[in-house]
Structure formats: C-alpha cells, structure tokens
Specification:
Strand content of chain B: 15-25%
Distance between the termini of chain A: 66 Å
Strand order of the largest sheet of chain B: 2-1-3-4-5
Oligomer: heterodimer
Structural class of chain B: alpha/beta
Order of helices and strands of chain A: HHHEEHEEEEHHHHHHHEHHEEHEEHHEE
Order of helices and strands of chain B: EHEHEHEHEHEEEEHHHEE
Helix content of chain A: 55-70%
Strand order of the largest sheet of chain A: 2-1-6-3-4-5
Largest sheet of chain B: 5 strands, parallel
Radius of gyration of chain B: 19 Å
Number of strands of chain B: 11
Shape of chain B: elongated
Structural class of chain A: alpha+beta
Radius of gyration of chain A: 50 Å
Strand content of chain A: 5-15%
C-alpha cells in the first residue's frame, strides 16, 4: 500500500468517521426494516410481479376454498368478497350470485376451481389447490374470483411493490456499505501509520470474557427493546399512507437503540479483532490465560525449575517433593494393609521413620553447605571491601608523598634568582600543573572514599535553605568573576533536613562551579529549593555553552567530561563527587539533559 | 636575636630537605630527624623552638612522639601528614599538636603557620601561661576587650565595629554555634530578617583577616546549614 494512502487510511479521523458511518448505516437499516414492519407490506411483493403467481394469492385461494366448502356445508353464512361459486348435492344446489350454474364456470373463459374427488382443482392447470374434505357431500362445486377483484388485488400488489423495492434497494446498499466498512475497520484497527505492530487500545486490557458477556447483554438489550417497540405499534398505516405518531416515535426509538447497541458491539468486535490480529486471544482471556499461567506456575513449582539458579535450593526442593510423595504413598499403604493384612500395617510406619531420617539427614547436609557458601561469600565480600579501603589509603599515601616533594621543590626552584626567562616560564607551568595534580588526587580520594563507603559523615539537623545561602556567599568571588547571574528561588521558611552539612556544601559548590564553568555566556543559572511530597527538593539548572552530546550515565562516570570542556581547570570529578556525596549525605541525586538545559535534582527527606 | 631553631621530622629525606631549604630561606635554623626516636634524641641535647612532625614513620611514629614530647614540654608542634580526613586532624590535635597541615602542602602556607606558632610561643614563652590575661583567648587569637583590639599571634588586626562585635560574641562562646539571626540580633541589636548574606559577608571578611588559609579556616568556621562558630581549642 502506498504510504500516503496508508497514513490516510490509518489516521484516527478516518477510522472514527468510518466507524460512525457504520453505526449510521446499521441504524438506518434498522429504521427501514421497522418502517417496512409497520407498513405491513408482504415481502413477497419483491419476488413476483404478478399477484396470481405469488404465495399470497395461493394462501388467499386456500382460504377462499376452505370458506366455500364451509358455506356449502352450511357451516358459514358470510360470503367472502370478490368471488362467485356454485355447489350441488343430491338434495339441493347453492350459488352466488344466485343465478349461477356449473355451465357459467365450465363455459366461461376465465380460470375457475372445481371439486374433484373431494379436492378443489385448478381448471387450467389441474393442480390440486386445497386438500379439503375427502368425504365431501357435494357432487359438484365451483368457484372463481371476480375479475374486478383480481384487478384490484394486482393493483395493490403493484403499489406495494413500488414502495418496497426502493426500500429493499436501500437496505441492500446499506448492507453492502456496512460490510465493506467493517472489513476496512477490521483490517486497520490497532494499526498506526508507519507502524505494522498491532497497538492495543485501553479496552483491550479487559478480559475477553467480560467483553463477550457485554456482547450478550447488548444483544439481549437490543432484542427486547426492538421487539417491545415493534409490537406495541399497530401494523399498517392510516388512510393517507403515513405512519401514526406512535409508530413514528417507536421508529425513532428503535433507530436510536440500534445506533447505541451497534456502537457497543462495534467497539467489542474491533477489540476482539485486534486481539486476534495481535495473537492475544488466549492471553486476554481470563479463563484460558489464567489457566495457562496457573499451569506454568504449578509446573515450575513441582519440578523446581524456578530454582534453576541456585542448585542447592533445587536439591532441597526436590527432596521435599520426594518426601511428601513418599509419605503419602506410605499412608495409603498403611490403610491398604489395615484392610488386607492388619499385622503388616506396622511396616509402612517403620518405613516412614526411615524416610524421615533420610530426609533430615540429607537436609542437614544441604543446609550446612548453604551456610558454608553464605559465610564464604560474606567473608569474601568483607575481604574485598577491606582490601579496597586499604588500597585507597595506601595509594593515597604513595601518591601524596612524591607529590609533596614535587610541589616543595618546584617552589624552591621558583625562588632561584639566577634563571633564564624561559626556565622561569617552565617552572611556572610546573607549579600550575602540580597544583592541578594535587587537586585531582585530592578529589580522586574523596570520591574513592565516598563510593567505597569508607568516609566519615557528620549528620546533624540543618537548614538546607541556609546552607544554599551560605554556599552562595562563600562562592561570591568566583560567581562575580564568572559574570554569570544566579537566580535563586528559596522558600521563606527553613527547610530542615538531617544530613552532613560539610558534604552538602561540597556538593553545591561543585555543582555551581560546574555551572559557572560550562554555561553559555549571557545565560542565567537557576537554583531552586522547595518542599515536594514531604521531601526537600533542590534543583540547579543551567544552559550549557556547548553541545551536550553525551548521556546521563556517561557524564556521571568518573573522569568523563564533555570533550569541549576537557581543557579546563578542575579534576573532572566534580559531578561524580557531588553525586556520591549527596548519597552518603542521605539524599537522592539525579540529573537530566534536556537539549542545552542541564538540570541536577537532589532530594532529601525532611527532618523535624 | 638568635635564629629560631626548628626540628623537621620526616622519614622521606627529600621532603625533609625541601622543608629545610624552605625554612632556611625564611631565615630559620633547621635540624632534621628521620624518625620519632631520632627526634626524641635531638630534643634531649638541643634547644628547639618548633617541631614539624610527619605521622607515618618507622620506629616511633609522629603521633606517639608528639604525645611523648607533650608530657614534658610546651614547644609548638605542627603535624604534617598525608592523612587528610577530619578524624585524622582531630586525633593529631588531641595528641597535643598545635596545628595540622596535610600533604601535599603549600610551602607558603607552611611557612605562615610556622611563623604564627613561633610568634605565639616566643611572645608568650613558657611564662605565657602564667601571665595574667584580662581579654579573651582562643588559640593564638587574643581579644582585648578594654582596648577593643584583636591580636593574632600577637599582631594587631584591624576590625570594623561590626566585625569586632561578631568576633567578640563568638570568642566569648568558643565552640558554640550561632545562627545568622542570632548573630544579627546580638551584634546589630535589630530584629533579624533575611540576614544570612549580611552576616556571611562579614564572617568572610573576618576570616580573611585572621586565618592563614581562609579556605581552610582554623578558628572561624561555617557550620553549613546551621550557623557560625569559633573553634574551641585546647588552652596550653
């Protein structure tokens, strides 16, 4: 399918419009049917043009034949309109109009019906029309329809036909349209433009059974509604061929009801269609889906496959199953023995005793093994933790000692008076770089300590708002030097938290340092503190001066800095330290990169 | 006047030599020792005015040596250590050291700290402790409430009336944390409203005047999220 066509056919508007069209068409069909019902027109008019060939005529004929027979027998006195007849037996003859004789029928050129062997037959085809009375007491009987009457009937027939044929045509057209649109709906439902997946709608989360019950209820509602509406109105129109007001009201109500029910049924059917297309019929069914899940659970419980990852637990589990099964078997055997051979009933309990002994003995072994493994892993963990801490301490010392020498001798070197300008420049560079190295080493160990948990914390009740203010004043010089404006939004009242103030100072200082270092010139830095869901929430936002083509995880990784920022001052650990220090201070740390906006969020539980 | 004699104790000979050269350039007389035991030996025979002591050393470590020296003598001791955690500093100071400098150190800062300790020691000497002081003393800070003067290592530091008020309040209650509001109400004698910045700015100025390294203050400290205090130091 062409993409543009697809995007049109899969657009929600197209789908909605076609759905509404379906509802309208079905409702329209129902309206036409009801109109037809109220008109009382025999649908047979559609089948045959000629009244005489219709089943309606056949039925009229039989009625008349029956009535004629009754009249002749003297059981009926009213004569049906539009016929003439003649009958004769041993005693008398009877006719209508009164002057008629058999001759009138036999010699007339019209069609008539005569009695032969107790049955009326058609004079032209010889067909038996009505199996009436084998013991008829008449020798002769004839009847025929008046020409005028037949002409009238034919006219009525034709008139009805003229009414009904367009209605039938409409129904056919609407039906065809409905089928086509339904097919379209089934094809495109759940599909979006440019996406071949079946997208489930909200209603698709409802269990299939509920939908089916809904479908049945809707059907019931429709049937009962329609039938009460159909049979509470009279059949046939009044004199001028229009519907009575009662019929009109019923018609509208029936159309409305149909529209409503069609909408409901349509939604349900489309949901079912999506399930079929998405192969989710069974899953979405409560009974089957639930059954399958139950079976899976049961199976994984019995064979212990859910303990696949821990072999010892699996062994325990299997032993447990054997134990229970064996015990059950032994109980059964006890009962059996009690019935068959009572003295032998002592054997199964003894065997049960062995079973219990076996069960406990091996379970104990397994438990010991588990215990041992657990202890080992715990010890391992502690050992590696200790090693990590020792490593940090030792490496720290080993790095700091030579660095102390370097810094000291560079300082001494810089005091030498007899030095060429070039050498002096070199010494200046050495001095700067050794200072930077000092900062990096210091940051590195702060970070290593805080991430390994080997860091001292000093928790106390403090006011985060005050801390932010203090930090900002403390950094006043560097803020002014940077030329950036910091906009703060702090609450009026204190925001008390229980945390480590010194660490949080480092956190905010690092974050503001970064913001000052990497912001786009002319932009502002925002510091916002508020209470949110019982927590203190601190946010620092700035606009980066370069493209942040890295992810949140990347930037939080130690040493990672945006490439453009690599050449700057600092250790590149500021953000990692901020994150780690926030955590050891009992807070949550998160950041978000939104285009050029760099947002850092910190959340702390509010104290008393 | 005789050159002050400084004992430098460090097992790293290069560092010891570097400190020696640094101090000699500043006109001090330097004696070196490479572990605690050696230091103790030198102290018996020589008159020393100040000790710079490393911590991690063979035979006798710096902290033990400090403790031993303190049992008999009042010489200023500056600990020089690669251990930089707060607990290390507190431990060192509680062992009787007068100052704690972390490696790698800034040479100028070390010299300044040496001078500060020496001034106090030479100024007051061993008799200092017996001299009657009418003002407030915290470490080498001395506030003469009569002349409204602040002496740092015996040198007069100029303070504005507000700065003086804050210093006085904090020095009267060493170790006690005051919030910005409390300081404002007590010093300005006005109702405090949004005064965090005002007070903090003054604190910073005072710090710049009295601290050797305002970034790592020894006396006037910010208690983050709570307030400000002047550290309570052991009186010797």
């Amino acid at each position: 399918m062409d993409t543009r066509l697809k995007s049109f056919s899969r657009s929600n508007w197209t789908k909605l419009a076609s759905f509404l069209l379906i509802v309208a068409m079905v409702a329209g069909m129902s309206g036409i049917f009801i109109y037809w019902h109220f008109s009382g027109i025999n649908p047979e008019v559609l089948l045959t043009e000629d009244y005489k060939e219709s089943e309606a005529y056949g039925s009229d004929l039989r009625t008349v034949a029956y009535e004629v027979a009754k009249i002749l027998e003297g059981d009926q006195e009213t004569i049906p309109g539009g016929i003439r007849f003649y009958g004769k037996n041993q005693e008398s003859s009877m006719s209508w109009p009164s002057h008629l004789t058999a001759k009138h029928f036999i010699e007339g050129d019209g069609e008539y019906f005569y009695l032969e062997e107790g049955r009326f037959k058609n004079s032209q085809t010889g067909e038996t029309i009505f199996p009436y009375g084998s013991e008829a007491s008449y020798e002769q009987a004839y009847f025929a329809f008046d020409d005028g009457y037949m002409q009238l009937k034919q006219r009525e027939w034709t008139a009805d036909r003229d009414v009904l044929i367009p209605l039938a045509a409409w129904i056919g057209a609407l039906f065809l349209g409905t089928v086509v649109l339904l097919a379209y709906q089934f094809i495109v439902t759940g599909k979006k433009a440019g996406d071949e997946e079946v997208n489930p709608a909200t209603v698709d989360r409802v269990y299939l059974e509920i939908l089916l019950v809904g479908l049945m209820l809707l059907g019931l509602l429709w049937f009962s509604g329609i039938s009460s509406l159909l049979y509470s109105g009279d059949i046939g129109f009044n004199g001028n061929g229009a519907m009575s007001s009662r019929q009109t009201a019923n018609l509208y109500m029936a159309v409305g009801l149909t529209a409503l029910v069609t909408t409901g049924v349509g939604v349900i059917l489309l949901s079912v269609a999506r399930r079929i297309k998405g192969k989710k019929m069974i899953e979405s069914s409560f009974v089957f889906g639930g059954l399958r899940r139950g079976l899976q659970k049961g199976r994984s419980f019995m064979d212990g496959s859910r303990f696949d990852k821990s072999s010892l637990t699996r062994v325990l589990h299997q032993r447990q199953i054997y134990f229970v099964a064996g015990s059950l078997l032994l109980v059964l055997m006890t009962f059996l023995m009690l019935i068959v051979a009572t003295p032998l009933a002592i054997i199964p309990p003894i065997m049960e005793g062995f079973l219990i002994y076996w069960y406990f003995k091996y379970n104990k072994e397994t438990f010991d093994e588990i215990e041992k493994g657990f202890d080992e892993s715990l010890e391992e963990q502690m050992k590696s933790e200790r090693m990590k801490i020792n490593l940090v301490t030792n490496v720290s010392h080993d790095l700091k000692t030579p660095l102390t020498s370097i810094i000291s001798y560079v300082d001494l070197l810089s005091r030498e008076e007899e030095m060429s300008p070039v050498a002096r420049d070199y010494v200046r560079i050495l001095s700067e770089k050794s200072e930077r190295l000092k900062n990096i080493v210091s940051d590195l160990f702060d970070l290593a300590r805080s991430t390994s948990g080997d860091i001292e914390t000093d928790f106390e009740d403090l006011d985060l708002k005050k801390l932010v203010e203090q930090t900002m004043v403390d950094m006043e010089d560097s803020i002014e030097a940077s030329g950036f404006k910091i906009r703060t939004d702090l609450p009026e009242e204190p925001v008390n938290i229980y945390s480590d103030g010194k660490k949080l100072y480092r956190v905010i200082q690092n974050l503001l340092d970064n913001a000052l270092k990497y912001s786009l010139e002319g932009t502002r830095i925002y510091v916002e503190l508020m209470r949110e869901h019982g927590r203190a929430s601190l946010r620092i936002t700035n606009t980066a001066g370069y493209e942040m083509n890295f992810s949140k995880d990347e930037i939080l990784q130690r040493f990672f800095r945006g490439d453009q920022a690599r050449s700057g001052e600092g250790s590149g650990l500021g953000l990692s330290i901020a994150e780690s220090f926030t955590r050891v201070s009992g807070g949550e740390f998160d950041l978000q990169i939104d285009g050029d906006q760099f947002n850092v969020f910190m959340k702390f539980p509010i104290g008393i | 006047m005789e050159k002050p004699r400084i004992l430098v104790v460090d097992d790293d000979r290069e560092i010891a030599a570097a400190i020696e050269k640094l101090l000699v350039l500043e006109d001090f007389f330097v004696v070196k020792a490479y572990d605690g035991m050696e230091a103790m030996d030198i102290l018996i025979g020589e008159d020393v005015h100040l000790i710079i002591m490393d911590v991690m050393m063979p035979r006798l470590d710096g902290l033990s040596a400090t403790m031993k020296i303190r049992e008999e003598r009042n010489i200023p001791i500056i600990i020089l250590s690669a251990k930089s955690q707060d607990s290390d500093k507190i431990l060192g100071l509680s062992m009787g050291a007068d100052d704690y400098v972390t490696k790698p150190f800034n040479p100028q800062e070390l010299v300044a700290r040496v001078r500060s300790q020496l001034r106090r020691y030479m100024d007051l000497g061993d008799v200092g402790s017996s001299r009657k002081e009418s003002g407030l003393r915290v470490g080498s800070l001395y506030l003469d409430e009569e002349s409204r003067e602040l002496l740092v290592d015996g040198e007069n530091v100029r303070l504005t009336p507000t700065e003086y008020g804050i210093t006085q309040l904090l020095m009267k209650n060493p170790g006690v944390v005051f919030s910005a509001e409390q300081i404002y109400e007590k010093v300005w004698k006005e109702e405090a409203y949004s005064v965090e910045n005002t007070v903090m700015v003054h604190i910073r100025r005072i710090r710049e005047k009295i601290e050797i390294n305002p970034k790592e203050p020894k006396y006037l400290k910010v208690v983050w999220g709570i307030g400000y205090k002047i550290e309570k130091l052991q009186q010797k």
